[in-house]
Amino acid sequence: MVAINKNQTRSRQSIDTKAARNLAITTNTVPQMAGITPRWLLHFLPWVQVQSGTYRVNRTKVVLKPSPKVRVNNNNGHSSISPEELRTIPMLSVLDLSDAAAIANRFQSESYHIGETIIQQGQPGEKFYIVVEGKLEVSTSGDEGENLRVAVLGSGDYFGAVGLAPEVISHSTIRTLTPCRLLALSKPCFDEIVSQSPDIRLSLQKAIEEQSRLKSVVNLYGEEKIPVVADYQGEIELPASYIDYEIEPREYDLSLVQNILRVHTHVTDIYNEPIDQLREQIRLTVENLKERQEWEIINNPNFGLLNSISPLMRVQPRYDVPTPDDLDELLTRVWKKPAFFLAHPRAIAAFGRECTRRGVPPVTVNLFGSPFITWRGVPLVPCDKLEIKSYNGNLQGPGKTNILLVRVGEKEQGVVGLHKVGIPGEQLPSLSVRFMGIDSQSLASYLLTLYFSCAVLTDDAVAVLENVEVGYYHDYQYVRV
């Protein structure tokens, strides 16, 4: 028997793999980028060709516009409202700036705990309130005395009466769902201001009467009702009318995102095989342009979906988490052929947890070769451009976001994407790549431009569920075997 010396170096009997690899042709992938997403919104939106660069949305005239939320100034825990912002409230829009300033200065900050009643149904209102932070539930009593929810109020909403008419009775109960901070104007403070300027009461009374008159002659969307008659007998005089249009309709100019791509000619001359370096540089830059395009369609301050939503189409969740009840509420707002919900993937997961808790798992469908969960047959489309506002900067921790429900298409008076096909140097629809030349350092420059915009054709084409929490999890009891 021959003893084996374990310390003896054994001679290699075949070529080393490291050496062989140097002679082999490796299989390379094109450059990968984790920041690329499916960009489902760009797939689901119908795109309209804007030949002139401007898209005008002609609408029938809205006689009674919905009341916007008001912006409250917060400075080191002190809250106030500016006279200009106070005048955005329809009832107070008739005030001149000095009178509005006098009223704005008399608001006082008030804080409430969870479950406190601010206004009781059947009782006269003594204050006018503006919500600074927190959520409140508006409810009323049904025919059998049951408690029926009317709405949930959030930051920027307002309620109550200033006491313009004696003994104004509240038709609803308003109580806090969370700790709340409100700005309040009491009737005595209002009466004191009126005593110094009696014209204020007269102006406000006329404004309230005008609001009441307009409500009686408009439909649910604020458009003037068209008088018609039906099922009549005999000879009657038929009503005559006409359809009025907005004098200054909304116009959308095509927006753009651009980038100058620089590539050294040394790279494209020598290192261009087997992968085309210029092609991959352009491809990855285009991916980034289209990522920004989707972000702008949602968040742009001028035409983004989140900033184009009517006050009537904004919904607050009763609880912070998105529940089936909340998505049902969105469906009551966008009920005319809703196309899809749009939500951050974590918001969809939060909704799924609430469905699991209730025992109503959502149905899954396949669209564009990928699975989507649905609610009431409407798909929930994931999109990370609906950003999450985290509490501590942890992107995977708790935070709040929004969920959209959208109707799409010109025919359906919905939401449409806007672009222009056929621009010079076009590589993709509405996207051009132009060679800009080579500088003295042998850097070749290419200008990449993507033209686009987004238009909401009618106010009821998009609704939003605001401030939904994505970080809440339920505790379940598990039996360990």
Helix proportion range? 10-25%
In whole angstroms, the N-to-C terminal distance is 56 Å
The helix tally amounts to 10
- Please give the number of β-strands: 26
In round numbers, the mean pLDDT is 89
Query: Could you name the ranges where pLDDT drops below 50 across 5 or more consecutive residues?
Result: none
Sketch the major β-sheet: 8 strands, mixed
The proportion of strand residues reads 25-35%
**Classification by helices and strands:** alpha+beta
The backbone outline, from C-alpha atoms, is: globular
Summarize the structure.
The protein has helices at 17-23, 40-44, 83-86, 97-104, 187-196, 199-217, 265-270, 277-299, 324-333, 345-358, and strands spanning 47-49, 54-57, 73-75, 78-80, 108-112, 117-119, 127-133, 136-141, 147-153, 158-160, 173-176, 180-186, 250-253, 255-264, 314-315, 340-343, 364-367, 370-375, 378-382, 389-390, 399-406, 415-419, 426-428, 431-438, 443-456, 462-469. The protein is of the alpha+beta class.
List the helices and strands and how they pair.
Blueprint: H1 17-23, H2 40-44, E1 47-49, E2 54-57, E3 73-75, E4 78-80, H3 83-86, H4 97-104, E5 108-112, E6 117-119, E7 127-133, E8 136-141, E9 147-153, E10 158-160, E11 173-176, E12 180-186, H5 187-196, H6 199-217, E13 250-253, E14 255-264, H7 265-270, H8 277-299, E15 314-315, H9 324-333, E16 340-343, H10 345-358, E17 364-367, E18 370-375, E19 378-382, E20 389-390, E21 399-406, E22 415-419, E23 426-428, E24 431-438, E25 443-456, E26 462-469
